[in-house]
Amino acid sequence: MKYVLVLLLLIAFTSQAEPYYPILPKTEADRLLHRLRRSAPDTNRVKLLVQFSNDLTSRYYYLQKPDTIARCIRQAQALSKSLHYAAGQIDADYALGYLLRKDPGGREVVLQALARSQQRHDRRREAIGWYLLSETYEKSMALHPQRIQCFEQAIRLFGDVHDPVQEARVLRELADAYLMQGKPARAKEVLLRSLALYKAAGYSKQHSSLDLLAATNDALGNYKEALQYALAAVASAKRSQDTLMLCTYYMRVGAVYQQFDQRDKIIQYYRLAMRSAEANHYNDTALGLASTIARVLLAENRPQEALALILEKSKAYPPQDDFSRLKVDQGLVSCYLRTKQYALATTYCQHIEAYLKSKDVTSDYRVLHGAYLTVGACCLATKQYPKARAYLLKSLATGQVVLTRSSMAHACLLLYKVDSAQGNLSSAIAYYKRYKAINDSIFSEMNSKQMAALQVQYDTEKREQSIALLTKQTQMQQMTIRQRELQRNAVLGGAILLVLVLGLGYNRYRLKQRSTRLLEQKQHALEAQQAEIHRKNEALEQVLGEKDLLLEERQELLVEKDWMLKEIHHRVKNNLQVVSSLLATQSRHLLDPQAVAAIRESQNRVQIMALLHQKLYQADHIGRVNMADYSREIVTYLVESFDRQRSVHTQLDLAPIELETTLATPLGLIINEAVTNALKHAFPPPRRGTLTVSLARLAPQQYQLTITDDGVGLPSGFDLQRSRSLGMVIIKGLSHQLDGQLLVTAADGVRISLQFDTSKKPVPAEAV
């Protein structure tokens, strides 16, 4: 039977109850935390602490912050006690009971707070206590009577205090309990009461009740109604932007579409449900949905795709508890059976058997029904007929409790195959007849419901036609009465209208005369304004003409200024060349080597500044220097000046950077001093080496100059701050002028690094 195994997995998701304290949206939760931090130690702070802890408890399985919640509750309890705030103490104890509702001590905490509510005749808090008491019981068949009793007490009390929203919410939980008991008709009746209360109160978040109503109609075989309610639940959740449980509502739609055999819709909505679960980090739910989609793919004869999906999701979201592992194992057993990998199917089937035999096995007949059926199918495929028969009989027994007729029919079909294989023909025929009877009852029930729906539709249309006929007759009578009234009023209205027309005509005549006079006055004023505008336009044209002449003169002056600046830079460069030549001439007449060296260094410095001015008058943009070309010429000039082309290899890594003259001048002198120092001291003959100069951009306005040699390094005990050599003094002074960070290190030679920022104005040379 198609999709029967899919339905078995969905049994575990009959309903997903919304928490009693709904999870707040992130903005509201942040606002609540902000108010809590700013609150004074009064009763309002107690309320905020309780609200905050309840919100965290509703997120407990996703946030995993029980210690934080317990701290908030303890603060609320202590503050309520110090303020003698009895209601706050009850609320704080309820919050603790809500947190510990699955622990042994949680029920006792709720019972004590419930007793205090009854002593204070606080019916609202007593109603909350009865509901929270129901939360302390497991959702098992054995404990349903206790839970139902709690729900009925809470419903009665919420009705007494006229709180329809809370009354409707507890009615929804009561309906869920009835559905789990196998009483879908009773559940539907209660759910319709819940929806009526929601609508009367104007409460828009009805999706949880709509979803459960879809599940109830599905159980009753009212599949069209089930689909309508399931789609309405999705629309309601989207409309109110309450998407935490949207995966459940998508899943419900997919489950109902199975009854209509619309496979594309089934897979579409299950995938939407899985994506929603993953988005909200409901990993166990996403894993269960992967198993569900895999089973639908199996029905589509796509076993490899189904197996790949369930393996992928079980790896991404490893099962965290026995129930999640059971869902994955059931899906894998089905996939491996379809792909005829019986050894692997048997392995995972043994996992399911171990769970069914463990002491922690669930008492939920819906889960047991699906597990028994899966094991029975596997044992049948592997020809373990006695074991298959035992598990399939258990599946039938649990199926009769939860009223899953489709899967019961499938169990009967499998038992027919088991008995046929064992030669029990009479038993096989009996099970086959039972299988056909259940199938026929489902089919006939669907047909009868469809016929009843058509009859209702026919009666409704007939009644609407009668109503339409009566309405038309009434309208004709009313039209006759209105026509007589119109005839009577027409004469009176005509006379009044004639008087009004005459009065209006006279009034229009007077208004026209007044309008003519006003128009003539405005015309004269407009002509005067136009004359004034014409005069101002002529004056503006004259001003614009003068402006164009001034702009042309300004452009000519700018061109002349550029030529003059270039000429100045050219002459300065020539003068510096003359000074350099004079220094060279003077050095030839000196006998002292130190004096000759000093003159030579001064000559180099002058030459460096001459190069700068040469760059300036050759550049297209006066006032900016291409540092890559300038630095390259400095290094080339110095190497040739010291005649070290053969013994010193230069490596230049220069970014294409343009700098203002005020930055280029000190930077060029720093390069001169550092390179000169390296050529003089780093490579004493016959030593050879490499001199590296790099200029890099670190950020839009931050640069780094680095000069490195692999020479002999600095003398021992060298201290940059105490050095009195002229070269180092110049480098430090120019670095300070650039407001840069200078760093000199000695490791396999000397490395001089300068970081500077062009956004900072250079320090005036006089201040250095």
Folded structure, characterized:
The protein has 768 residues and is mostly helical. Among the domains are: 23-99, no CATH class; 123-203, Serine Threonine Protein Phosphatase 5, Tetratricopeptide repeat; 633-767, 2-Layer Sandwich (Heat Shock Protein 90), CATH 3.30.565. Helix content is 74%, strand content 6%. The protein has 27 helices and 7 strands. The strands form 2 sheets. Strands 2-4-5-7-6 form a 5-stranded mixed β-sheet, with helices on one face. The protein has a two-stranded antiparallel sheet with strand order 1-3. A hairpin with a 2-residue loop joins β4 and β5. It is extended and about 130 Å long. Mean pLDDT is 81; it is low at 1-16. It comes from Hymenobacter fodinae.
Q: Name the beta content range.
A: 5-15%
CA radius of gyration is: 47 Å
The dominant shape is extended
What is the assembly state of the chains in this entry?
Answer: single chain
- Give the CATH topology of the domain at 633-767: Heat Shock Protein 90
User: Based on DSSP secondary structure assignment, what is the total number of beta strands?
Assistant: 7
Structural class: mainly alpha
Largest sheet: 5 strands, mixed
User: What's the arrangement of strands in the largest beta sheet?
Assistant: 2-4-5-7-6
Uncertain runs: 1-16
Give the class-level CATH name of the domain at 633-767: Alpha Beta
CATH architectural type of the domain at 633-767? 2-Layer Sandwich
| Distance from first to last alpha carbon | 95 Å
